[in-house]
Amino acid sequence: MKQIIKSKEPKSLTNYRASITKTDLKSLKKYEDSPKNVLDDLRKALLEEQGYICCYCMQRVDFRYTKIEHFKSRSGFREKQLDYNNLFISCLGGEGSSPTKQFCDTKKGDRELNYINLLTDIESKIEYKKDGYIYSNDDNINNELNDILNLNYLVSKNNRKETLRSLYSEFKKIGWSNHSLKENIKKYQNKNSKGKYRPYCQMIVYFLTKKLKQKGVTI
């Protein structure tokens, strides 16, 4: 999980929101009734903002296979359904599967996250195990990771495990020098030349930073 820095919202969204009344905004149907160009511009902006990774599990996402996530649900906060700071991009999260196989926004549904805040340095409160397990030492955050987002669903957990395994295989070839660790931390902290973060980037940063600390090096 990675902190998301919000950028400027699409102009089409700004104009559309200004064109409707507060009464319309509170209608649950209004979001779905938004013009296609507004929704397309919004999806594109959110993807670019997040570097084409899911706001929760950090897997790669693209334009077609995504959901526009309302952090504060539309059912409970109708006035926020066109608030850009409340909107994120999520993967499909097992949409159409049984509840036990759903994750991210699909699993979350209309439930609220009261301790996980994507706009803060949430990454400082998240840790990982080598088997791909994601957790927090904060019990409240830990409960939301598992009970609301289901981020330790077997498929997600194994994807993180495989990503970490590939990283360790790479480092066995190039060596665990301080220089290699620092260079790769920078690589995973930043978007590539196509404006994309690498999948599960923050997990990789976590382990590489931990490796440096074990060597007595601080960043």
What does this structure look like?
The protein is mostly helical. It has one domain. Strand 3 and strand 4 form a beta hairpin. It starts with 10 loop residues before the first helix and ends in a 5-residue tail after the last helix. The model has no long low-confidence stretch (mean pLDDT 93).
The chain-level structural class is mainly alpha
Oligomer: single chain
Beta-strand share of residues: 5-15%
Beginning-to-end CA distance, first to last residue: 20 Å
Radius of gyration: 19 Å
Mean pLDDT value: 93
- Taking strands numbered 1, 2, ... along the chain, how are they ordered across the largest sheet? 1-2
Biggest beta sheet summary: 2 strands, antiparallel
Coarse shape? globular
Helix content: 40-55%
Order of helices and strands: HHHHEEHEEHHHH
